Amino acid sequence: MEYALVLPVAESHSERIKAFRAQYAGWASRPMRSWPHLSIKGGAGLSAEPGCLDLIREIAAATSPFEVRLGGPAVFPGDGRVLHLQVESPGWGRLHRTLVDTVARHTGAQLHPLEVAGWIPHVTLLRLTAQALERRDEVYAAVRRAVPTDSSFVVETVRMERFDSVANWWKQFHEFDLTGAT
């Protein structure tokens, strides 16, 4: 089973991202397989075992809610097909590092290379076709019109999701509230 830890995007932002995905589905190289979210930990070391869930629960209980600021549209260097919103959040960085390091230490799991080298926080909008990439300025303009860039929201939960290969969709498996002192 594949698992991941994600931060839900505020509902008002999520609805606009879903509308953008629907309106510009022709720019997508494949259908999206999850609701809008901000990934924080890949699957290495994650499981449905009570010990793993307790570990994540402890980390969440020691973490205060924090702000996430969404920036403008971008694509990753390299193949450049992942259209996303840039993210700025010191709280994300601290929680990401704590989750990655603690889960690895407790499980001995081999980390995903991006967890070691530096995961880039982002909210994926679409995986672009080659034709859409050629029209990047138009794509970016559409994002700026349709999606709440240069805005922020407060993260209060971490969700563990599990990939359902039959449905080809990431589904919520567990939710952990951030309840640390502010």
UniProtKB/TrEMBL annotation:
Ligase is among the record's keywords: yes
An example Gene Ontology molecular-function term: ligase activity
InterPro entries xref list: Cyclic_Pdiesterase
Protein keywords: Ligase
Domain of life: Bacteria
Pfam families from the UniProt entry: 2_5_RNA_ligase2
Keyword Ligase in record: yes
Designated name of the protein: 2'-5' RNA ligase family protein
